[in-house]
Amino acid sequence: MTFEPPGGPRYAVNGTAKGAGYTAMTPTWADDTNLGNGLKVDISEVLDKGRSLC
């Protein structure tokens, strides 16, 4: 599963895409300010939507 922002590169959203050579989406993945410690926001809805398209 990949994500491509307008005008940007395509990023890996899951491990399969990362293993296929796509860049990890870490630069675009927001920190969760409620959790702190550099933890990222939950992207399970994005993953669920991606899986539903397969």
TL;DR of this structure?
With 54 residues, the chain is α+β, with helices and mostly antiparallel strands. It has helices spanning 15-19, 44-52; strands spanning 2-3, 11-12, 23-24.
Report what the structure shows.
By secondary structure, the chain is an alpha+beta fold. The protein is 26% helix and 11% strand. The chain is built from two helices and three strands; from the N terminus they run ββαβα. The protein has helices at 15-19, 44-52; strands spanning 2-3, 11-12, 23-24. It has a three-stranded mixed sheet. The N and C termini lie close together (9 Å).
List the topology elements:
Elements: E1 2-3, E2 11-12, H1 15-19, E3 23-24, H2 44-52
Parallel strand pairs: 2-3
Antiparallel strand pairs: 1-2
Mean pLDDT: 90
The residue ranges in which pLDDT falls below 50 over 5 or more consecutive positions are: none
- What structural class do helix, strand and pairing data support? alpha+beta
Number of helical regions: 2
Give the % helix: 25-40%
Taking the alpha carbons of the first and last residues, their distance comes to 9 Å
List keywords for this structure.
single chain, 54 residues, alpha+beta, 3-stranded mixed β-sheet, 2 helices
